[in-house]
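Exercise 7.
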Amino acid sequence: MIIVVDDDKAVRESLKFSLQLDGMDVHVCDSAAALLDYPGLYDAACLVVDYRMPETDGFALREKLAARGVSAPQILMTAPVSSALRHRAKVAGFFAILEKPLLDDVLLRNVRAAIGD
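Solution. The predicted structure, written as tokens, is:
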């Protein structure tokens, strides 16, 4: 299962639809808190996480996930992506950082690579 975390409903639903079209099982969360409360969290094969969310950011969420032992690869999304942010994401251990809007099949390619498909 792929979990998408984004506070923007249109983005969540669009990414869910795109991944489901490719046959993936997708769950969406509207916040970091919803993700952390989600019973299926530990079943995730990959997490796609927004960088800027109202109550936290993707980096703080990654730390919380690591503290809970969540080891699924995580992909960070934001706009714009600076070289400093790209470096920070790499150091933090994100599998990839993607720039919104996600064009073509960039999300699908990165999710597939993250899950080894």
